Amino acid sequence: MSDAEIHLTYLNHPDVQALAMTDAEIVAAVEQGLRAQGLGQATIEPRMHLVPEKDYPGHFNVLRGYVRTLGAQGVAGVKTVGDFYRNYERGLPSELAILNLFDPKTGVPLAIIDASDITDMRTGAVTAIGAKHLARKDSKVLGHIGARGTSYWNVRLLDAIFDFDEIRVHSRRPESRDAFAARLEQDLGKKITVTEDWESTVRGADIVVEASRLEKPAPLLKTEWIKKGACVIPYGTNSAVELSLTDIMDKMVMDDWGQAKAGPFGALRAHVDSGRFHEGNLHAELGQIVAGLKPGRERDDETNLFWHRGLSLSDIALGSAMLDKAQRLGIGQRLRYR
Fold first, then answer.
1. 3-state secondary structure at position 259
2. What are the coiled-coil residue ranges (predicted)?
């Protein structure tokens, strides 16, 4: 038996913040993972769910994957993220996560990273990349439902691409949506419109993002509010859209079709279960579009939908980019594994 020492890198939350990942670095890393997926240079398995107790207000997601194009020999990874929608009552984020990175040839652990920010950043990046390919290039009005951690990066990275004239935001709790808008105004340097209902947020918007935190499915976003030619991106844990939403779509895209039937959650869970959304009317996976294998938007009058459930590949690609930057800057702790 070998007595060789093995060390890994630990990046805690202050370390991740100290990296100060730029918008461009985040998007580039996530695009690399998507491109690898589209070209068949990655392995992804459907997410798994752990519900500790049915009466607890939340669950865990476990995401697993491998990206061959990262570094010299690729990187494998597993992320575990809690999704506990009432954590605000305890002063905690609703989503707290850990990402483990591994050498795919030996199984040696490479890093343990606080992935709470990674979850937020990569989700925003996937939203933005999806809109870049599926929304009109001249989109100027964003309607955003939800104010959780991922929502900030949705708006920030979308605005970096489209430079919106109007950004509308709404969430259930006034204190949450007001604080969300204030942070966006400070960081983006533009006026944010806070709305008091879903309809005024969604109606007439060029891009609609639904990132709500519902306790159970409820059709709060009405299909009739969707503007012809809009891009709709719903990804709430519990569905907030009507079954008729898919009826008006010209193109429907997912991050990974294998995730469509993974677990009981998801914005289009009922659409898949009822046969309204199936592999036959799936236009493409986003990675295929990023890799140039399938077209994105082809006409201004297309009404397009992008459903993303969250890819381990995006977590791994962004986590790997963070690990590389941390090693260049000397950030993080070196821990002995054995």
1. helix
2. none
204-228 mean pLDDT: 93
Q: Please, which residues have CB within 8 angstroms of residue 295's CB and are 6 or more apart in sequence? A: 284, 289
Q: Give the integer Cα–Cα distance in Å for 13 and 126.
A: 22
* Per-residue model confidence as pLDDT tens digits over 237-266: 788 999 999 999 999 999 999 877 766 677
Q: Say how far apart CA 122 and CA 46 lie, in whole Å.
A: 18
Q: With beta carbons less than 8 A apart as the criterion, state whether 333 and 278 touch.
A: no
Distance CA 119, CA 17 (A): 13
Alpha helices, H only, the chain: 13-19, 23-38, 116-134, 149-162, 174-188, 198-202, 269-273, 286-290, 312-329
User: To 5 degrees, how large is the angle CA 229–CA 230–CA 235?
Assistant: 145
C-alpha torsion angle, residues 87, 113, 15, 185 (rounded to 10): -50
Domains of the chain: 7-118+313-336 (3.30.1780.10), 120-310 (3.40.50.720)
- Residue 262: predicted pLDDT: 62
The 8-class DSSP code of residue 18 comes to: H
Give the chain's end-to-end CA distance (angstroms, integer).
13
State the residue for tokens 């519900």.
51
Asked whether the beta carbons of 185 and 152 are under 8 A apart, the reply is no
Within 13 Å, how many C-alpha atoms sit on residue 302's CB side?
21
